[in-house]
Write a structure and sequence with these properties.
This protein is of the alpha+beta class. The protein has 15 helices and 13 strands. Belongs to the thiolase-like superfamily. Thiolase family.
């Protein structure tokens, strides 16, 4: 069978990886094991399902849901949506979470999988690359499966910024009075003086102002970018384009019926006139406002990922494959520029160019950084491939969840439009960027 297949496959317009994977699908179990043992084949990792909660406003409908309970919701949804899977076979659950100071402490991935009802034998690990945590979790799972170490995994992320606690450090000496209270919602805490001296410890909005200054991004352009984000999301919601990726969250109320949250609640109607009236949040004469920045939000997202073998064993239908993930570092004071080197790196890794990409999901931490990234990559401010359904300015930005949300939304866009490749990229606090390319199958 294989000898007949080889000439046909090489006559097609396929990558060498695709050719070997097709041959692999025709092999017996024995020959597959030999391939793995020899290290002759790096397999693709497939995304078989992806689901998320709605994104809640700060102090909004999801604020009463514990972070670990919130994290369990999309995992439980994966179980319900994929009844043919033997969940005891899951090799690992990887979740991203940026805070981990409150109810998300002590390995929220492990807590979530147990609360979701997965077997006790399934392990879990929580990773923290700040804003890029959810995307990093998917990348880690993809590498584990592609290496042959794992066969089936769950990856995603969670953040409840509404429930982020205040924390108090201990005094440095007995009877000292140098204890400090820190808000863990976002940004720096317990700052290292040397870090401050060497690199500065600009708050997130300050880094956005730095980007605006250094790359010449005007207030008007930022407000127009923010307005486009809100308008695109409004259209997407009106056309119910997020329905396939959202699992409703049932929130018990003290009085009355249970509240069912099934729609992102951060988007808000606005106008250019309204946006221009907002005051700058960093300094007088600045350009960064609450209207052209992402939100402080709550949400969770989970993806079911598997090898070709595991897809066959568990009756799963691959929807996309992860082609590559890349990370990069930049100066912390302009952390918003991280997607530029990360994108260039992942494109080189996958042998693609931006012209090959059909869907681009760029996390809109701030309009200034979104515009600066697009311009540095040679893309138009209004490139139709970018955030077709709006971005974090409209939808919100639950830090540890956002990267997984980008991939989930990109996957649904590829399927809806018939596109082939999607790029998901985001900036990361303390000066990093992360990017991933997926391919629809």
């Amino acid at each position: 069978m294989l000898t007949k297949a080889v000439p046909y496959l090489f006559s097609q317009k396929s990558s060498s990886h695709d050719i070997f994977e097709t041959l692999y699908a025709r092999m017996s179990g024995y020959h597959r094991r030999v391939f793995h043992l020899l290290g002759a084949l790096s397999m693709h990792t497939y995304i078989c399902d992806a689901i998320r909660t709605p994104i809640g406003r700060f102090g909004g409908a999801l604020a009463s849901v514990r972070t670990d309970d919130l994290a369990a919701i999309p995992i439980r949804a994966l179980v319900e949506r994929n009844p043919g899977v033997d969940w005891s076979a899951v090799d690992d659950v990887i979740y991203g979470c940026a805070n981990q100071a409150g109810e998300d402490n002590r390995n929220v991935a492990r807590m979530a999988l147990l609360l979701a009802g997965l077997p006790e034998t399934v392990p879990g690990s929580t990773v923290n690359r700040l804003c890029g945590s959810g995307l990093d979790a998917i990348g880690i799972a993809a590498r584990a499966i592609s290496s042959g170490e794992c066969q089936i995994m769950i990856a995603g992320g969670v953040e409840s910024m509404s429930r982020a606690p205040f924390v108090m450090g201990k005094a440095q000496a007995a009877f000292a009075r140098d204890m400090s209270m820190q808000d863990t919602t976002i940004g720096w805490r317990f700052i290292n003086p040397l870090m401050k001296k060497l690199y500065g410890v600009d708050a997130m909005p300050e880094t956005a102002e730095n980007v605006a200054d250094e790359f010449g991004i005007s207030r008007e352009d930022q407000d127009r970018f923010a307005l486009r984000s809100q308008e695109k999301t409004a259209i997407a919601q009106a056309e119910d384009l997020f329905a396939d990726e959202i699992v409703p969250v049932h929130v018990p109320q003290r009085k009355g019926a249970t509240l069912v949250v099934q729609r992102d609640e951060h988007p808000r109607a606005t106008s250019l006139e309204a946006l221009t009236q907002l005051k700058a949040v960093v300094r007088t004469g600045g350009t960064v406002t609450a209207g052209n920045a992402s939100g402080v939000n709550d949400g969770a997202c989970a993806l079911l990922m598997a090898s070709l073998d595991a897809c066959e064993v568990h009756g799963l239908k691959p929807r996309a494959k992860v082609l590559g993930t890349a990370t990069a570092g930049v100066a912390p004071r302009i952390m918003g520029m991280g997607p530029v080197p990360a994108t260039l790196k992942v494109l080189k890794l996958t042998g693609l160019t931006l012209d090959d990409i059909d869907v681009i999901e760029l996390n809109e931490a701030f309009a200034s950084q979104g515009l600066a990234v697009l311009r540095q990559l040679g893309l138009a401010d209004d490139d139709i491939r970018v955030n077709r359904y709006g971005g974090a300015i409209a939808l919100g930005h639950p830090l540890g969840m956002s990267g997984a949300r980008l991939v989930t939304t990109a996957l649904n866009q590829l399927e809806r439009t018939g596109g082939r490749y999607a790029l998901c990229t985001m900036c990361v606090g303390v000066g990093q960027g992360i990017a991933m390319v997926i391919e629809r199958v």
